[in-house]
Specification:
The protein is of the alpha+beta class. The protein has 2 domains: 19-130, no CATH class; 134-191, DnaJ domain (Helix Hairpins), CATH 1.10.287. 39% of the residues lie in helices and 11% in strands. It has a 3-stranded antiparallel beta sheet. Strand 2 (76-82) and strand 3 (85-91) form a beta hairpin.
């Protein structure tokens, strides 16, 4: 996916902050320092080929022209490769490009901290957490998930739940989403007084 640095390429489907709700921000930094810090954080986490997209017209060295008119849309989006995936962080919460850039830098720095402090797979989960949710069209009843008849006995439901739970457990090579579906289905059966 090709991304342009100018004009701003906001990620599709991401909500924008209305101009009247943008905050001043407590970051006191120049754009060059915020940009260099952001690029360094992306490099430290293993990100590759970052592109910082904004409505600022940049020189060839990546710095903004000094005589640039006031930017109406201070949003920033940074795109980069991470473990074979295209990633994007975007921010338009603040009234200046510098503050939005610094906010993204601090966010990546915090995610790197999670990884450094021992929860090694949490950064990947942070990137993919919402992709794990089932689509609304994929709604099945608890008996369909557990693969039992709706009128099955409580002992049959419990036995099937235990079999499926063991089969889909992530520690045994199962998919986490299948394991969660089995757990949720059994909880619904219990709630309905069937198990």
């Amino acid at each position: 996916m090709a991304v342009d640095a100018f004009p701003l390429q906001w990620p599709a489907g991401w909500k924008r902050t209305p101009a009247n709700r943008r905050e001043r921000g407590s970051f006191d930094t120049a754009f060059a320092k915020a940009r260099d810090g952001l690029m360094a954080e992306i490099g430290r986490m293993g990100g590759r080929l970052p592109v910082l997209s904004s409505n600022m017209v940049l020189r060839r060295d990546g710095l903004p022209y000094a005589q640039q008119p006031r930017i109406e849309d201070p949003g920033i989006a940074v795109y980069f490769g991470y473990k074979g995936q295209q990633m994007c962080f975007a921010c338009d919460r603040y009234a200046t490009v510098e503050a939005n850039t610094q906010a993204i830098r601090k966010t990546i720095e915090a995610l790197r901290g999670i990884e450094r402090w021992g929860a090694s797979d949490m950064m990947e989960r942070a990137f993919t957490g919402f992709a794990q949710l089932a689509a609304p069209a994929d709604v099945r009843t608890w008996w369909q998930v557990l693969d039992v008849f709706p009128e099955a006995s409580a002992s049959d439901i419990r036995a099937q739940y235990q079999r499926l739970r063991a089969r889909h457990h992530p520690d045994r090579g199962g998919k986490p989403e299948d394991f969660r579906a089995v757990q949720t289905a059994y909880e619904q059966a219990v709630k309905e007084g069937r198990a």
